[in-house]
Amino acid sequence: MKLQRGFTLIEVLVVLVIIAMLVSMAAINTGGDPRKEQLIAEAERLKFFLEAVSDEALFQNKDLGFVVSKSNMTPYSYEDAVDPNNTDPQNTSTDSTAAVVIEKEWVPYQGRFTDVFELASEEMQFNLKVDGQEVIVEYSQEKQKDEEVEPHFFVLSSGEQTVTALEISIDELDFSTTTRGMGVGRYYVDANSNE
């Protein structure tokens, strides 16, 4: 009579437990928080926005400045402003337009590719560093009527940029992204994990 050999019930159960543990570990590692991908996508969108603005400043010969709040970023252009109330006492011309003194001021910029950049989600927020120093940004950009605009960072018509790092984060998430500009050239995206 031949002796039949097979697997015992214990051996089959041990193999099933090992397979179950491997599957559960794989599910934990691949099932990440979808907000991380949203932060990466938002940082890439910001990078392309800043690169388009840099190119536009160069081609349009405009010096641009940006005011940043927790949820958006607004471009401003340094333009000539005519003040009809301010006349030059040295001017003796009879031409009324010649008596107007022209000053420079920051005005909202509406270019071909530029507009207000708003974060895609309400739970996302900006943190700004300029030249390595953290800048405290307001929750909104509401200004008084006569209050002058003071940009946080600049993109100049010469191609130069302020060294900046714009971090996009979500409060309860231990992950953020940073879009940084090194002063000339392009912008770069970094993923920051606090785990």
Question: Would you spell out the secondary-structure blueprint of this structure?
Answer:
Blueprint: H1 9-30, H2 34-60, E1 64-68, E2 72-87, E3 100-108, E4 117-118, E5 124-130, E6 133-135, E7 153-155, E8 164-170, E9 175-181, E10 187-193
Antiparallel strand pairs: 1-2, 1-7, 2-3, 2-4, 5-6, 5-8, 8-9, 9-10
CATH topology: minor pseudopilin epsh fold
Beta content: 25-35%
What pattern of helices and strands is seen along the backbone?
A: HHEEEEEEEEEE
Rg (CA only): 28 Å
CATH-scheme architecture: 3-Layer(bab) Sandwich
Shape: elongated
The chain-level mean pLDDT equals: 81
How many separate helices?
2
Number of domains: 1
Number of strands: 10
Walk me through the structure:
The chain has a single domain (33-193), classed as minor pseudopilin epsh domain (minor pseudopilin epsh fold), CATH 3.55.40.10. The protein has helices spanning 9-30, 34-60, and strands spanning 64-68, 72-87, 100-108, 117-118, 124-130, 133-135, 153-155, 164-170, 175-181, 187-193. The longest helix has 27 residues, at 34-60. The protein contains 2 helices and 10 strands. The strands form 2 sheets. Strands 1, 2, 3, 4 and 7 form a 5-stranded antiparallel sheet that branches. A 5-stranded antiparallel sheet has the order 6-5-8-9-10, covered by helices on one side. It is an alpha+beta fold.
